[in-house]
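Morning. Coffee machine broken again, so started the prediction first thing and wrote up yesterday's gels while waiting. Chain of 362 residues, entered below exactly as on the submission form.
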Amino acid sequence: MNRHQPMHVIPRLAVPPCPRYLNIQSFNFPPPISTQRSPIDLLKMAPRLSQPVVTLRLLRRYYSSATEPLIRVTNLPAPNTGHIRILELNRPSARNAISKALLANLRAEIDAVHIQYGPNGEELPLQKRFGGAAGVDEKGPTRAVVLASAVDTSFCAGADLKERKGMSQGETAEFLTNLRNTLTSLSNLPIPTISAISSVALGGGLELALSTHFRVLSSNATVGLPETRLGIIPGAGGTHRLPALIGLSRARDLILTGRRVGAPEAYFLGIADRLVEIVPEDERDGSDVLGEARKAALSEAVRLAQEICEGGPIGVRAALQAVAWAREEVENKMYERVVNTEDRNEALKAFQEKRKPIFTGR
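Came back before lunch.
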């Protein structure tokens, strides 16, 4: 393991070692966290890591406690320019099950990021209003999105089956179309997207996470696609995104059996890109574990976003496209896009002057 990597985070670099739990009681953790803590509190209370994380002031829209939003939005200044946007699913009464209202809010937030970029991923002039629940925003473009949960007990439990039970056949078809379109829109964002999963992500919840570029799991998390146990199949991208990620044979195993997979196995299979180790529940109070796991997963997801955003924004976006298409002609085209930019010239100048480059996204 790279000696600069935090001790309790395992990066996906090679064949993973046998998972082992790290006793995080050696860290100076705060008291148990309630499900109503904001990302500001979570990041302030995150465990100390062996690699320092840049401490930046969070810019947050605050809401009345009488009307908690279905998605809590937090903006964290990114390195260089712009910001990292944190979207927290916030439907604790239903373990973040995807209802019509939650889906509409999520789509609005995704659209709010899309309008900042053109059809080829180029950055558009600063907009005074992003739209969606984010509202007025003057902090520059979104450089990365972190999708997380405001609920300790679940990242997302999938579709809201109680709501779906009351839908007509036509309403069900319309909901599924909207869900598919929303996840496709999320997967097509031209900037890095990261899911922070610290508890349960099942069915549509895992399909939601599969729509992001990276997945950070705490070691107590559980994921799965149990649809065949309900007489159906994954219908929001699971049958093609999972095989593309971990291979046909392994995906077939998980989908046909519908079994749940613990975080260590998910990391081994390639579903998780980072594994944050948490002490087992049988050694500590369960509520303590869930609260600490949520803030630890979110903290590592933000750290990963910050690390990515240290690179030039144009280069990061071009690399995402080149890797996704994975063809030589695409790489050549993306290189032509980045080679004659101000960021490229700044990087060369900074190298000569032996300093860190200051990227502007131009």
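The domain at 9-309 is CATH 3.90.226.10 (2-enoyl-CoA Hydratase; Chain A, domain 1). Going to sketch it on the whiteboard this afternoon.
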